[in-house]
Design a protein that fits this description.
single chain, 98 residues, alpha+beta, two-stranded antiparallel ribbon, 2 helices
Length: 98
């Protein structure tokens, strides 16, 4: 996270990273129980950072010094193996952009 604080609120009505992480955790858990082979997740900045953090099972309390940055339009591939290990196979690939 850019500001190194999970409780930072940029303006009064903004979500903190902790609030985003907890909201995204619900979505991530829903995805884990789907039987679809491929699922596309589209997001931006903090929501993708929260999604990746949760996908990789990084506890919220360990995120304080973590910053996951990607470029606009980057495509990532995540997977889960037969032992339910979560894998970040490709991160932020932009090779398709000409």
């Amino acid at each position: 996270m850019g500001d190194n604080s999970i409780s930072y609120r940029a303006f009064p009505d903004a979500e903190t990273f902790e609030e985003v992480y907890n909201r995204i955790k619900i979505i991530t858990n829903e995805i884990l129980y789907k039987t679809d082979k491929n699922i596309i997740v589209i997001g931006h900045g903090g929501s993708i950072e929260a999604f990746i953090s949760h996908w990789l099972n990084i506890p919220l309390e360990n995120i304080e010094k973590l910053y996951i940055q990607g470029n606009s339009g980057g495509v990532s591939f995540l997977a889960e193996d037969i032992n339910s290990n979560r894998i970040l196979k490709v991160w932020n690939d932009g090779s398709y952009i000409i």
